[in-house]
Amino acid sequence: VLIRPGPGCPSPPTTLHAREVTSTSILVHWSPPRRDNGLPITGYTLRMKVLGSDMQIVYQGKDRVYLAVNLLPNSVYVFEVAAINKAGEGIGCDRLAIRTLLDGAPAMTHG
Prior knowledge:
Blueprint: E1 14-21, E2 26-31, E3 43-50, E4 56-61, E5 65-68, E6 76-85, E7 88-89, E8 96-99, E9 108-109
């Protein structure tokens, strides 16, 4: 007898990265999980914190991009995203830590 588990929460999203960084904003993007574990992905939860504080939910929705604004210049922010399906929220991806630029510095963009 082979026992197969039913559908489960999705695996973590992949390739969380910053596309554009300014002194007061960070544009983050991520790719879908490698495995939905039997149920379609219905959305994502993005958490963020400034270094030294607690993670806070800053976005829940279907898009895979988020613009964090009103940030402090020259400060480190940490991001983590998790995928959601009907079974629940999966575990978060590897965290991304990124420093905002010095006040007045030109924006940095990444592919």
